[in-house]
Specification:
Blueprint: H1 2-16, H2 50-57, H3 70-73, H4 77-95
C-alpha cells in the first residue's frame, strides 16, 4: 500500500505541482482477489434517484479531478467505457478552453 501511495502522490505532483500534500490515509481495494467479493458493483442509497446520484458523482472536483466509471454512467461495461470518453473530453476542455 505504501508503494501505491508513493506512486499516486508522485503522479499528482507531476500534474499539479510540488504542493500536493501526502494523504493522511489511503485504502487500496483488492476486489479481484477477494474470494467473497470477486468484483464490485455500486448501488444507490434508499431514496436517492439513480440519475441524481450519477450526476453528483461525475461532477469534476475544482476542474482538476475528473471522474469516470460504472458508478457515474450506468450499469454496463460499455456505459463505464463511454464515461471514460466523457471524462477525457472534460479534461481536454479544462486544459484547452
Amino acid at each position: 500500500d505504501e508503494k501505491t501511495k508513493a506512486r499516486i502522490v508522485e503522479n499528482l505532483r507531476k500534474m499539479f505541482g510540488p504542493d500536493v500534500p501526502e494523504p493522511a490515509k489511503i485504502l487500496v481495494t483488492r476486489w479481484g482477489s477477494d474470494p467473497f467479493a470477486r468484483g464490485a458493483h455500486t448501488f444507490n442509497r434508499v431514496g436517492v434517484s439513480t440519475g441524481t446520484q450519477r450526476r453528483i458523482l461525475r461532477e469534476p472536483l475544482d476542474r482538476k479531478i475528473f471522474w469516470a466509471g460504472q458508478a457515474t454512467a450506468g450499469e454496463t461495461t460499455s456505459a463505464a467505457f463511454r464515461s471514460g470518453n466523457r471524462a477525457a473530453s472534460e479534461v481536454e476542455t479544462a486544459l484547452f478552453p
